[in-house]
Every structure is written in C-alpha cells, then in structure tokens.
Design brief:
- It is built from nine helices and 14 strands.
- It is of the alpha/beta class.
- Strand 10, helix 7 and strand 11 form a beta-alpha-beta unit.
C-alpha cells in the first residue's frame, strides 16, 4: 500500500501501490491543536495500512480555511477516487465540496459536518451526533444542579460546525428541561485548554456566583476547572464537558469533574475510512453515519476505558 503524508504541504512517500488500489485523500482540520486529532490521524493511517487495497493521501489544513480549500483543489486535480474532509469551517468549505462533487469525486465528511448548504454535495457524513452530545451534556448539567442555578458556557471555535451543534443541542435541551438554570454568558475557548482557562478567569472575575460550567470538550473543561481551582472557587461547582479526554477522565476520578460524553478518535477515524470504502463499493450508505457516544459520569466511569488521548 501507499501513504502520502503532508504537513503544511510537505509530502513523504511510503511503499508503492498496485494498479487495483483505490486512492483516498483526506484533509484534516488541525492535527496539532489537541490530542484527539493527533490520535485520529494515527488511527486513520493504521486502518489504511491494514488494507492492501487502499492508498491514502493524508493532509492537514492546520486550522487554515484557505489551505484546506487549496488542498481540496489539489486532491480534485489528482483525481483521487474519494475525498474525506474534516472541515475547518463547515460553511466556507461548501464551494470546495461542490467542486469535488461536480468532478465526480464522492466526498465523505468526518467528525464535524458541512453546513446545510453543502449536504447535497456529499456522499455521507461519518462521526458523532454533536447535537445529541449537547443534549446529553445539558441533561447531565440539569441533573447535577437539581434543576436550578447559574452557569457559564465555553464553546469551541466560532464558525466550526461541531461547536455550533453542541451549543445548539445544549441550549435547547437546557431551556426545555431546566428553565430555572440561567446561562450567565457564553464565550469561545477555541478548543484550547489555556484559552479556556483565561475565559473562565474572566467569568470568575465578572460573576460572584457560578454553579456550573459547560465546555464544548474536556480539554477546555479542564482549563476552566484549573481556573476555578486557582481562584479557590472549584468546590461545589459542576463541570460538564463533551469528548471525554484523559484529563477529563482523571479529573472525574478525583471527584473534580462531574461528567462528559465518551467519544473515541479511533472509532471516528476507522468509521470515516470504512464509510468512504463503502461508498466506493457502491453500497447503500446512509447520509448520516453516527457512532455511539454515551454519557460518562463519576458514577459510571468504571464502565469505560481511560481515553488514550
């Protein structure tokens, strides 16, 4: 098999491919931003290496929308058999996805979906149901607070579909299930622990009472937790996240973090590759292919392995 790895445009070549292999290009969002994406890339490459009939071109947009658009165009020009994209911006990438569709190249969106305007141009989405994850987090928050209190929310990158959908699911379910829980403010943490910690520091300065914190993933959630610990205000404060990172799992084990949503980057990566292969094989593939992401709390965490990321 053959793998082409690209980091900011530099290619590295592995073993030669046979004439019968399918060529699949993947352009990822931002591998260096957190351990989830790093683990996803390793798992994707491992899954491709295990299949002798697959050649993959692995690209990383580095969080840059313009670079990802350029990578999409390059993959179209190379006439790959299929493209997998983890969008940096679900709306901005619609024209690039449409170009691939018009060129006869099926596109599988992974992890974070394309905007609604692009759904007609993709073969399938493979990943978590991010709206449902937001719903799960709202339900855990409501249960933990007993139906009343004041909370703040730290979201992911503005414009990023996962961030938008998790916030949507959380906000709608919280208002429905716990009308007596008030959201004091919502600010981005950009999927970054240090940025989320600074955001939480600002919240702590502005608000005398914060009963709970919802963060769009555990990386940001632990940043918020660290800020509250440093300020001497973490005791009694409920921290809820999504995408359970190892740091979130460990904080749960210490009793500092209430709950999250369990999501495996390995499952995510393997599902994306398999979905692309199923599309190329002409199988009847659902438009939306979700894998299970259950709630994880201090009470049931022993049922789950510690995350590898």
């Amino acid at each position: 098999m053959r793998i082409l790895l690209a980091s900011c445009g530099t290619l590295a070549l592995a073993t030669a491919a046979s004439a019968d292999t399918v060529r699949i290009g993947i352009t990822q969002n931002n591998v260096g931003i957190d351990s989830y994406q790093t683990t996803y890339e390793r798992a994707f490459i491992a899954a491709a290496e295990a299949n002798p009939d697959v050649e993959v071109i692995v690209l990383d947009a580095g969080g840059d929308v313009a670079r990802q658009i350029s990578q999409m165009q390059d993959l179209i020009q190379q006439q790959v058999d299929a493209i997998i994209i983890w969008p940096t911006d679900g709306q901005a990438l619609v024209p690039a996805v449409r170009n691939a569709h018009n060129a006869g190249i099926p596109v599988v969106v992974t992890n974070s979906n394309i905007a609604e305007a692009g759904m007609d141009f993709i073969a399938a989405f493979s990943g978590p149901n991010n709206i449902q994850q937001g719903i799960y987090s709202a339900e855990m928050m409501c249960d933990a607070l007993g139906g009343e209190g004041q909370i703040v929310q730290i979201t992911g990158m503005p414009g990023y579909t996962t961030a938008i959908e998790r916030q949507q699911g959380f906000d709608e379910r919280l208002a429905e299930m716990c009308p007596d829980v008030t959201q004091l403010d919502i600010q981005p943490g950009d999927w970054n622990r240090e940025r989320a910690q600074r955001t939480m520091e600002t919240f702590l300065t502005r608000f005398d009472t914060i009963d709970g914190v919802y963060s769009g993933d555990d990386n940001m959630g632990v940043g918020a937790l660290n800020a509250a610990i440093d300020a001497g205000r973490a005791e009694g404060m409920v921290f809820i996240g999504a995408t359970n990172f190892a740091v979130g799992y460990d904080a749960m084990a210490r009793g500092e973090y209430w709950g999250s949503v369990y999501q495996s980057p390995v499952d995510d990566a393997e599902a994306a590759l398999q979905t692309a292969l199923d599309v190329l094989a002409g199988e009847d593939v659902p438009k939306l292919n979700y894998f299970d992401t259950p709630k994880i709390t201090q009470e049931n965490m022993d049922e789950f392995d510690r995350p590898v990321f």
